[in-house]
Amino acid sequence: MSAALAMAQGVENRTWPNPPVGAVVVKDGAIVGRGAHLGPGQLHAEPVALADAGDKARGGTLYVTLEPCNHTGRTGPCTEAVLASGVARVVIGIRDPNPTVSGGGARFLRERGLDVEIGILPESCLELIWPFVATDNFTRVFVELKTATSLDGRFAPGPELRQDGQPFYLTGEASRCDVHRRRRRVDLVLVGEGTVAADQPLLNGRLAMGDHDVPQTDPLPGYVDTDLSWQGGFAREHYLVFAGESARHGKARLKVEQDGGEILFCAEKAGHVEPKSLLELAATRDLFTVMVEGGPRLAGSMLFAGLVDRWINYMAPVVLGRGVTWPNDFAGPNVPDRGFSLTRLDQLEKDLLFIHDRKNFSATLARVTI
Ligand SMILES: NC(=O)c1ccc[n+]([C@@H]2O[C@H](COP(=O)([O-])OP(=O)(O)OC[C@H]3O[C@@H](n4cnc5c(N)ncnc54)[C@H](OP(=O)(O)O)[C@@H]3O)[C@@H](O)[C@H]2O)c1
Q1: Most confidently modeled of 9-18, 259-268, 300-309?
Q2: Catalytic residue chosen out of the listed positions 12, 46, 80, 123
Q3: Domain count, the chain
Q4: What confidence tier does 52 reach under pLDDT thresholds 50, 70, 90?
Q5: Domain limits at 41?
Q6: Is residue 367 included in any domain, yes or no?
Q7: Active site includes 46?
Q8: 291 Cβ inside 6 Å of ligand 1
Q9: Phi, psi of 343, deg, nearest 5
Q10: The domain spanning residue 152 has which CATH number?
Q11: pTM exceeds cut of 0.85
């Protein structure tokens, strides 16, 4: 199952809006076929792995990260291909989380005499397709918020301790590598204008380059600047700038466009880009998964609007005392959102990693493994 997972994790072009799926065929203790689903309109992972195995599949075992489909979509049902291949056993990571489909593929195969086992490395298999599950099959864009904070809840030191344009890293190397791996799995990495001005970030996945289990392509970078007042360019060649409609006819857009920024004009609310409108525009560009990397003002807006699906916070064992913190109107009784549940708590060298999800990951996991 690890090999099947790796097949799906490393797919060069992200498969969204389809879920990534990986499969391998094993015969006499050796892998004889491998396959991954490469995205809409492409074959599913099972027929690819079974074709790769050819006659060697007969009597062997198919490992697949997601329950084989039992319906005709753009391609035929995978269960038919599995049956025709002659494999004797099918090991499935997780059931299909879609309640209308769940169990159908496994039942079909069992009824025809195959030995079917479900729930192997289920957490990783669910992780693989979580953006798809959390958004009910991308009925909206998946938003992953990343924050890094000190023990006293600050995001960065104040300007008096900063060198202009130099990024300041609160967290250690292991956390930064983790962020870069996560960046490689999303379509767009987004920050606010304040972060571009303070850090001039690259927003790529350079620390994960060469890791076999993440895509090798970088996500598209972008920032939000309602009035296009940031005129200092951006450290990447092509990037998106989400501006307000009110900036459409201003002079400021010329410099941004000359620098390589592609501006998307969004609806505004209270003088700023409206986050929901931003995400709707992103969806029209086939940007299905977005990682919002702050700073706190943009992060606060996304949280306030109830648009964050997953919140990943790295907590560093330092106290800054002063510096960048949540915006004032984010405090006290205005706390907008108690709808997250804790999915995971990990240690990354000296830092702590908290992953919270709006859709309950553990409850979903329990449902897809029985
Ligand atoms: N530790 C971390 O995880 C982390 C991550 C990123 C940044 N940082 C630090 O955070 C600091 C910058 O954070 P920040 O809060 O000042 O700035 P920010 O969140 O990066 O950017 C805020 C700006 O984004 C624009 N914006 C457009 N639409 C918005 C909306 N709906 N909601 C909020 N902002 C919107 C606003 O400018 P308009 O006037 O154009 O609307 C606003 O001034 C830097 O010191 C940086 O180093 C830390």
Answers
A1: 259-268
A2: 46
A3: 2
A4: very high
A5: 2-127
A6: no
A7: yes
A8: no
A9: -95, -40
A10: 3.40.430.10
A11: yes
